[in-house]
Fold these 2 entries.
Entry 1:
Amino acid sequence: MIPCALLLLALLSASLQAQEVCLLFSGEERGYLEPCGCAKPLLGGIAKRHTFLKSLSEPWLSVSLGDLVGGDTLAAGHLRRQDELKAETLIQALKIMNYSIHNLGEMDLDMGLEVLAYLFPPGPVTLLSSNIRLSGSHPDTPYTLEIVPYKVCEVGAGLTPAPVRAGLKPTPLRIGFLGILSPTLLGPSPMAGVTLPPGVEIIPPAEALPPLIKELKDKADVLVLLSHAPLEESLGLASDFPEFHLVASGHGADHPIVINKDNTWVSTPGIKGKHLVLYRYNPDKGSGVIETVTLDERLADSALMLSLLDNYQERLKEEKLLSRVERFPLPRQTSYVGSRACSPCHPAVFQHWGSTLHATAYETLLKAGRASDPECAACHVVGLNYVSGFQSQDISPDLTGVGCETCHGPGSLHIANAHRDRPSGPSNISPLERGDKGVRKDRSKDLSLQDGYGKVSPEGCKGCHDAEHGPTFQLESYWERVKHPAETPISTAVVR
Amino acid sequence: MKRGASIVLYITLICIGYYGREGLCNTEGGGATPPERSEGPGGATPGKIPRLTVPESIHSFGQIYRGEKVQHHFLLKNAGEAELEIKKVRPSCGCTAAVPSQNVVPPGGEAYVEVTFDSKNFVGKVTKTVMVDTNDPSEPTHTLTLEAFILEEVAAEPSRLTLGQIRQGEGRSLKVEVKSPTGMELKVSEAQSSSRALEITSIEKQADGLYAIKLEVKKDSPAGRFDGDLVVRTNSPRQPIITIPFFGEVVSDVSVFPPQLSFGLVRRGTGAVRQLLITFHNPGVRLVRVEVASASGGFPTEAQSALSGNPPQAEKVRETGPLPAEVFSLRRDPEGGSSSAPGGENYRMDVVLSKEAPVGRLEGSLEIHTTSISQPLITVPISATIKE
C-alpha cells in the first residue's frame, strides 16, 4: 500500500513539474565543417554535432554565435570562393539541425551583403543583430537582407504547477534572444581587422540594448544575450544588464569557458564547433544548469551530414577551385622541377623518400576523397600557391605528395648549377655517374655545398604538422621516419 | 582578485570538470556516449593514485613581437603514490605546439611540457591554452595557460581591405599606411598586388617614417568580383613580409550570386534546388529573361523564360537534346520572389535539378538577359554530378 502511494505521489509530482528546456550554443564556426583527417583526436564537425543533437531527449533550441567563415585567410590554399561554399554548406547543416538563430559576426559581414542576402533568405535560420543596422536607402545596399534586432522563440511545454492545477492549457516557454557585435571588431586598426561595409551602421551595445530589453520585458520569459565580442566585453555586458539570464559569448575563446558574473552565467563554447554549451533551464526554479560538451570520436558521424560533406567536396571539384588558388612568383626566378628530377643525382635518397608516407601523401588525399580541396591539397602536394607548383595530377604528376622540394625548396637553380659545372649537360646525368678513374661519383655533396641548396629547418615541418592537423607530431621521432640515408661519399665506391 | 585572474580561475575550474551551485559539468561526448573513464597505467597499485601538481599553470610571455616564436616549459609533478600517465596534451589552436618530456611520471617524479607559441597571426592581447589529460582521478584534465601581448614591428592600416562594391566607371583610390609602432627605421622595398583589379600607383615615404601605398581600382575595370593579397616587403627582420588581404566587386548594372551554380554530388532520383540572386544596381535596367543554355558535352536545351509568366511556379525547359528528361529548370522562389530596393529590383530564383537527371557529370549554363547596354547577357556556369 505504501509503495503504491509513493509511486502515485511520484507520478503526480512529475506531472506537476515543468519540463526542462535545453538551449544549445555553438561558437564561431570559422568554416570548420569537419576535422582534418590527419588530426587526432578528431574533434568537432557537423557530422558529430548532428549525432549529438539527435540524442537529446528534452525540447531544445540551437543557436549559432557568429562567423560562419573566418579561418586563416593567409593560409596556403585559401580561397574566398571556398569560404562561400563552406558558408552555404554550414547554413544547410544548421537548417537540418533546426538552428533558429545565427548571431552576426564580423567575419560574416566581411563576406559582403550580397553573400549574406544569398545565405539568409527568409526562412528558419534568422540572422540576428541588435546593434547592426542596414541603411534602407543606401545605394550600396540594394539587397533584400533582413537582420532582426531580436527574436522570441517558443520551446517546450514550459509547464508550471499552477496552470496545470487550474486546468489551464500549458504554454511554451518564451526565450527572448538579443545579439550584439562588438564595435571593437570593426574598423581599420589591426586589432579590429574587418572594415564596416558601406551602408551598414553599428550602434554601441550600451545604446542599442536598453530599448530592446524593455520591449521584450513582456514578450519573453527568459532573456539571453548573444554576444559576438571578446570575453571581457561579454562579462561587462553581463554586469551592466542583469536582465539577462545568460550571456552566450562567441568570439576569440579557443576552449569552452563558463563564468558566473554577478549572478549571470557567461559562457562560450570555444571555436570551430568542437564543443557546445548547453543551458538546461528549469522553468519551475527559474534558473538553469550549464553543461559543456566536447564533440569527440565517441560520437558517430551522422550519415546525413556525411552526404552533405560529400556534396561540398564535389562542388569544389565542379568549380575547379584547385586551379583557382593564388599563385605567387618564386624568388630569384626559380621553379619547381618535381621529385623525379632529383633522382639521377640522389638515387639513394630518392629511393628512401619513395618508401615514406611523404611520397604517398597525395594518394592518401585521393583515398580520403579530398584531393579537390585546396586547403587539404596545400599540404599534400608541392608548391600549390606558386607559379610552377602543383596544378593537377595530369599536368604536374611529379609534384604530387610531399616531394623533395616541399622541404628543400624549388630545385631549378640547383639543377642549373649542377649542369653549369658539367660540360656534358643534363642529358648525360645518370644514377651511376662514372668518375675519371672508374670511380662512381655522387655529386650531391659537393653541389649542396656549392649553392647552399638543400638546407632544411624543422620550422618548415610545422607549416603542415601543426596542432590542428598533426597534434601528435614530435620532431625527433617523426624526423627519424623521413631522415635521408647517407649518400655514398665521393671517391669511395668503385664501380665494378 | 583581478578580472583577468578570475577568468583564468574559471577556465581552470571548468576543465577540472565540475563547478558548484547549479551544476556545471564538462560532459565529454555528451549524453550520447558514456563519459571517458580515467584509468591508471597498467601497473597502478590498487588503492594508490597518482596526483598531478603544477607549480605554475599560467605563464605570461609579456610583450613579444608579432612573428616571434616563444617557448616555455611547464613543470609537472607527481605528488601521488602511483605512476602518473600523461595521456594527451591538447593545444587550443594551430599556433601552439605542446610536447611532454615523457609520458609516464613516477611517484615523486617530475616532467615538463614544452610549449611553443607562434605569434605570426596575432596582434594585441592573446590567451592560449593547452589541456593536459592525465590519469589523476581528481583532475583528469589540467589546463595550462599562456598569455602574451603581441606588438607589431611593422603594422599596416587597414590590415584588411574590404572594398565592397565599386561602381564601374567610378573607380576608387585608396591608401594603405605601413608604419613601425616601435619606431624602427622602416624601409619598404617592394609592394605587389596579386590581382590586376587593384593596382599600386605609388609607394611614398612620408616625413614621419610612414609609408603610404596608394592603390587604385581603375574606372574601366571589368565588372566582377576580385580578391587577393597586397604583399609588402620590409626591412623588418621579424616581419619581412606584410600581407593585406583584399576583396571587392566592380558592379555595373547587374550583379549575380553565386558566380557559378554547382549542385555537387546528388543521388539519382533525389533532385536538388539551388538559389540564384540577381541584383540590379541601376533602376533603369530590367531583366528580360533567364534561360538554361546548352554546353559542350552537355545537353542542348531551349528554355523558356522563367520570368515571362506571373505565377510563381516551375517553368518548363523544352528539350531538344538527347536527354530523357529536363535536367535544370527555373522557378521564382515563392518566398523570396522579387523585391524593390534603392538600386532597382532584385530577383531570387530557384534553379531546380530534376529528379530524372541521368547519372554522370552534367554541365551547362544559365543565361541572364537584361536591358543593360554594358551587361546584356550574363552567363553563369551550372553543373551537377549525379551518382547512383
Entry 2:
Amino acid sequence: MKRRDFFKKSIGAGVVAGAGVAFGGIGRIFAGNNNPLPAKYDLAAIKGGEPDVMFDKAIEVMGGMKNYVKSGQTVVVKPNIGWDVIPEKAANTNPVLVKRIIEQCFDAGAKEVYVFDYTCDEWTRCYSNSGIEKAAKDAGAKVVPGNVEKYYREVDIPEGKNLKTDKVHELILDSDVFINVPILKSHGSAKLTICMKNLMGIAWGRKQWHRNDLHQCIADFATYCKPDLNVVDAYYVMKKNGPRGVSKEDVVTMKSLLISEDMVAADAAGAKLFGLEPDDVPYIKIADEMGAGTKDLDNLSISRQKL
Amino acid sequence: MKIPSLKILRIILSLIFFLGTLFVFLDSWETVGPGLKRSLVFLQFSPSLLHFITVICFGGTGFIIILILTALFGRVYCSSICPLGILQDIITFLAKKFKIKKYFKYTKPVNWLRYSFLAVTVIFLIFGSVFLLNLLDPFSNFGRISMHLFKPVLAGANNLLVNVLERSDIYSVFPVEIKAFNILSFFFTLSVLILLLWMAGSRGRLFCNTVCPVGTLLGLLSRVSVFRIRFNKDACISCGLCERVCKAGCIDTKNMHIDLSRCIDCYNCFRVCPVDGIGYRNSLVRAGNTFSGEPSENRRAFIAGSVLGLFSLSAFSKGKNKLQPSKDTTFPVIKKYPACPPGSLSIDHFTDRCTACHLCVSACPTQVLQPSFLEYGFLGIMQPQMDYWTGYCNFECVACTKVCPSGAILPVSKEEKKTLQIGVAKFVMGNCVVHTDKTDCGACSEHCPTKAVYMVPYLGNLAIPEVNEEICIGCGACEYACPTTPFKAIYVDGNPEHLTAKKPEKEKIEEADPDEDFPF
C-alpha cells in the first residue's frame, strides 16, 4: 500500500471513529471501567451522623474515593438542585454532603470538579437558595448553569423502549467521572425520586418522558447512563408532598446515607428506607427487568454502619 | 460669577438619565433589585402621574417635581430626563456626524396635530383608558424599544462572550435566554424606532412637538415659566447661528422670537451664540464652538445595524425540543380571563393604569409576564399578562410588584403573595395522558408549590391530578409543566378580581426512630 493511501485510510478510519465517539454518546456506557478494583461492597448504608461524616465512613468501605477518582481526572457531581427552596425543606440535596464529596474528589487528585443541575424552578434562585452553589464554590468546584439548551448534545438510547433518543448535558458526556448525588424523597407520580429519577436533571427532553410513560422512560435512560458512583442523601427525607414539598412539616430527619455503583440497588434500598417495597415503584421494577441493575437486595453484599 | 455652560450640564444629566433608564430595562442579570430600579425611574412623568392618582404617596410625586421644574425653567424634562427625548438627541447627533443633517431652520408649529393628540389622550384618560398613553407616551415607548430591540442585541452579545469564556473553562458569566418573541410588540416598537430615526434624523425633536402628549402638556406650562429664554435684542447681531442649532426649530431669528412651547431647553443656542444675544432673562452666555465636519459613511451605519441585528439572534432560545412525536390532545382550552400580575388587584385596576412600558416584563425572572395581544381587548394592547407557556410565577418572587412605576402593580410582601390567587387551575381530563394513554405523568403536581394540584389513585396503579381550588394561587407551574400539545390538560384561568387562597394544611409527619435497624 502506498504511503499516501495508508494515510488516507487511517485518517478516514480515525474520522469515523472520532465521529462515533463525538456523536454517538458512547462515552457514558463505558462508565463502569473507571475503577479496576471491584468495590468491596455492592451497597454501603450508614446512619446516625452528619452528612459529611457519614460520607467519609461510607466511602471508606467502598474502597475510598481513590477507587473512583484518579489523579488528573475531571469529575461532574450532579446533585438535586431542582427547587427554589432552603435546605431544611429537603427538596434539594444537602449542601454539606455535596461539599464533602467535592472535597474528597480533590483529595483524590481530581483536576476539576463541575456541579450542575437542570432545575425546575428559576435556576439562579435554585442554585443560591439551596445552598449548593456556595458550598460547591467553597470546595473549589466550578458551578455551571444547567438550563441552557446549547450545553446539551443529542445521544442515542439503543436499549430504550419508549425513549430512544434525548439530549444530555455535555459535562456528563465529557467528564471522566460522574457522581450522582440525589436526595431521597416522595414524588407525586413517580412515587419516589432517588438515583434514576435524579438523572432527569441531565436530560433536556424530560417533558417527553412525562408524555410517553414516565416510568418506562426513567428505566430506559437508566440502561443508557450509569454513573460511576451514586450517593443517596437521606439525612432529611421529604415523606409527602414531594418532589417540591409544601413545608417543613413534610420532612423527617432520617440521618442516613447510601452509596452504590448500582442505581437500581441504591433505589431499591432507598425505597425500603422510605417505607415502600421496590416493587411498589414501577420504574425500579422495569429497570431491573431491563438489566440496568438489580433490585434483589438479599443477594448483595451490604455494609451497614450506625454512628 | 461664572456659570458653567448649561449645555454641558444638560448633556451630563441626559446621559445619566438615559443610561440609568436604559440599564433598568436591560438588566437581565438582576444586578440591581427591582425596588432600586423603580426609584431610578422616579422622575418619569406619565408613570409617576398615574401612580399618584392610584396611591397618593411619596413614590408617585416625581411628576410634581417635573411640573415645578417646568414652571421655573421650561421643558428641561424633555432634554435632560426623558429617555426617548435623549434617544432622539443621539439620533440627531449621529445624523450630523454622518452628514445627513447639517443644520436646522425655524419651522411653524403644527398646533392642530399636537393639541389633538393631547386632547384625545386626555379624553381617553377621563373615560378610564390609558390606550393612547400606551401608544404615545415617551417613557413607555422607550421601555419597549429597550426591551424588544436593544435587549436581544445585548443578550446576544452576552451569549457570544459566554461562548468565548467557556473555552477557557470560565463560567462566571451565564447565558441570557429570551424565551418568547412577541410579534406585535416587536413590530410596533420597530415601527416607532424607524419613525423616530426619520423624524429625529431629519427634523430634530419633531416627535416631541407634534405627537408627544407629555411634551405638549409641558409646553403649555413652559410658555409662562419664571425663567424664559429670550433674545437680547440690543446684543443680538442676527448671525442666525442659534436657529441653525435649534433641534426644536422654534427660534425665529428674523422676528427675534422663540416659541417657548416647543423649546426643549437643550441650550445649544446658548452655547453657539457669539455674543450675549440669547439667554434666560439675559443670563451670561458663553461663546460657542463651530461644528466640525467629519468624513461620513452611511454604509458604516448600515453594517453596524446589521451586525447588531445578527448578534441578537443568539439571544433567543430555540424552539421546543422535537423528540418523540406524540398524539395531539383534542379538547381545546378556552380561558375566560387572562391572568394579570400579582399585586395588580384586578384586571380593571391593572388595565386602567398600565402604560405597557414592559418594565415588569423585563424584570420578571421567569419571563412569565409577556405583552398581551387582544386578551385584555383592543384597548389593552401590549399590556402584560401571565403567559404560562413561556414561564410560571416563581412562588416567592415579588419582583413585578416592586418595579412597576405606574401603580398598575402595587407592592406585595412575599408572605402575602403566597396566598394571592391571581387565577385558578382547571383540569381537562380528556387531554391528560394518564387518562388517554394510561401511563403515569404527574408533571403538574410535581411543580405545584402549594400542592393544590395533587395526585389521586386512578385505574389501579396509576395516579391522576385533582385540583383543590381553595389553595390554588394560579401561579401556572402546572400549565407550564404539562407536556401535552397542542392543548394542555391543566391550565390556569385568570381571576378578574384577585382573591385570597387558603393556606395549605400542614400536618407534621411522625419522626423516624433513630435507633431503628436498616430495613434491608
